[in-house]
Structures are given as structure tokens and as C-alpha cells.
Write the C-alpha cells for this entry.
Amino acid sequence: MRITRFARAGAVLGAVSLVLAACGSSSSSSTAPAASPTDSGAATAASSPSAETSSAGTTTERPAPPAGQAATAIGAGEGELNLVAWAGYAEDGSNDPKVDWVTPFEKESGCKVNIKIGDSSDAMVTLMKTDQYDGVSASGDATLRLIYGGQVAPVNTDLVPSYKTIAEFLKLKPWNSINGVSYGIPHGWGANVLMWNPAKVSPAPTSWSAVFDPNSPFKGKVNPYDSPIYIADAALYLMKTKPELKITDPYALDDTQFAAVVDLLKGQRGLVDSYWDTYTKQVASFEAGSSVIGQAWQINANIINGDGKVKVETAVPSEGATGWSDTWMIASKAAHPNCMYKWMDWITSAKVNAQVAEYFGEAPAQTKACEVTSKGFCDQFHALDAAYADSIHYWTTPTSDCLDGRGKICKDYAAWVQAWTEIKG
């Protein structure tokens, strides 16, 4: 298996000014036609914000996205499809002749696929703004930027047969929908787990305190993720262990909450052996024995255990975990919309979604994929476990307008970036 997922490491979020500008106004420009209320699955343009209930139980106003229209039918393919994708999501056999789900799609659909690898969410947003691409495999930290920026359109899920058996816990979520309108087809997901070497860490840890408590017995052996988004992991820990801070969303932190989280992370610095931003760094650190515990992706653990130099175990601790979910989205100005709809159905069909998930190292969004993955794969990645999925706080972009509905009193991502520089010293 060729591991390609890790192009995203160290490129989780950014360009928050785009988000703030887009989310602060419903007047973002788009040349997409206005939606018709009669279109199945289509978005209806709104001139005023609509109310939603936040996780904190308060009511917050979310501005309507730019006017857009979902397709009402799929015609013949246009003969070409231009995609922006994470490495490993659109394999055509050029990296490994045995790994190819693009060529069969081209033969079946008549759509020649041109792939542009996006090595970060920021890069994907920038590429989609050129209007040269028909679709993108966007992570949760980029999706709202694309929606509110007018780069992507609503999706008529009735025209994507595979959508019917996509896991329900991934549908119509804050990162892939607005006001009950779908803006994409879920592709794959995962949690940022706690990983440890059981030969050095015993008993098995059940809390993130193992990496955050200044009195942790693993001083000098902790291996955290190197990104400003890791601030959310510390916030999640304090959300559960310091209720007096009243944190309700690890991505929505006011001045007091943010200061407490930053202090925690500065204190953690004394526990750290090293930070990792690519899988190779974490694998090397654990195999060398310099690190024995830290936040990880499940695939990192699989590689380490596959190498056989050391053994590691993983779990989602009692406080829960952050994570990520990716979505295929169609460009609002797609030149080849029929081919894109065909692709969204193909890539999330059982056989293909299973192939991608196993190659990439993630839980497939398609529940039927688990019928054709290798034995034990879906169990390992908790693919059908709704409770596990619900325990994840998926990556999103912090904005000054608090995501939990408290108003414009929260630290935006620019503040997170600055704080992370200070945390690492």
C-alpha cells in the first residue's frame, strides 16, 4: 500500500480572512443562477440570514450562501473532468499499476479525468477560485470557505444513487451543508486518536491528561501534532476537565478560554520530545523510542505496527477527539457538471470507496463499502460506528463570530496561528 494521505499534514487551515469576509456577509459574488424552489435538492437563495440552533443551545444567525442551483437531471458526459484532489483520492495507476479506479471510470463514463493534486486546503481553495476545475475533495476546514465564497454549488443528492447508503452520521453536517441543503457527497473520515507504546506506557491511558498534565510520567516522550489546529485538542481536553471555563465548542474560544488553552499548551512544551507534521516524522520518532505517546492518525499506527520494530495501540480517550471529514463538491461554474455528478456517484460507490479507503487509510463514507473491504478493515477504522463518529469534533475554521452562537467574541484563526508560534517557542 502506498501511503499518500500525508500531503495534508501541516496544511490544516488558513486564509481565515476569506472565511471571515464570506461568513460576515451574504453578498458574496457568484455567477451561478438563482435556485428554483422546485428543483429537487437545490438551494434557495435567501436575502437574510436564517436561524440555526448551536451546540450550546443558543440561536445563531448563519448568513445564506451565494445564490446557487443544483442540477435537476444528468445528461451525457461532456468528455472531460477536471478535479482538485488530495493525493491518493483519484489514482489512475501512474503511482502503482495495481491502484487505479480512474481508468475504469473513464471507460464507463467517457469522461477523461485530469487531476490536480491539492497539497493543502488553502491550495485547494485557491485553485477552485480560478474556475478551471469541476470539483474538489475538500476537508472540513475548506468547505465553508468554498460555499460562502461561491466556488461550489448545492448538490442534488437524488442524482447520486450512492448517496442513499452513505453513513447517515456524515450527511447534512455543518461542514457539508447550509440550512439543510447539501453541498457535497461525503467521501471518508477519521479521528485524531491517542497513540502509545504499551511496552513503555502502562496501564493503557484513557484520558488526554497523559499528554497534557504537567505531571505526566511521560515527560520528554510526548509527540503532538504540529499545527495551529492542535489548539482544538487542548481546548477539547479543557472543555471536559475544566467546566468552569464553559467551553462548548473547541473551535469557539473567547479571550479567557483561549488564554487557558494556550497556557496549557505552553505547559505541555516541557513534556514534548518532538512535534510531527508528516507521518514519516511520527513513525521515525516512535520506532526510535524517543516518543512513546501522542496524538496520531490511525494509519500512522498501522504503519508502525506493520514495520514491526515497536508495537503501538490507539484509542479515543474519555474526553473525545478531534477529527476530519472530506467531501466531494461540485464547482458553481463547472464546465463539465454531468461528468462531475457521474464521478461523485462513482467515487462513493461501494467497490470504489472501499478501494480508496484502504489505499488512503480512512473510514469509508459508503456503508456498503464495508462488504468489500479486507477483513477487519472497517472495524479497525470504526466505519459503521455512529457513536464513535459522533464523539469526534471535526476540524472547522475558528472565526471571531463564535461557532457556538455567542457572538463576535471568539479568537479567529489568525490568532490561532500567532499563538501556535508562541507555544512552540
About this structure: The first helix runs from residue 16 to 23. Residues 5-188+326-390 form a domain with the D-Maltodextrin-Binding Protein; domain 2 fold (CATH 3.40.190.10). The chain has two domains: 5-188+326-390, 190-322+401-424.
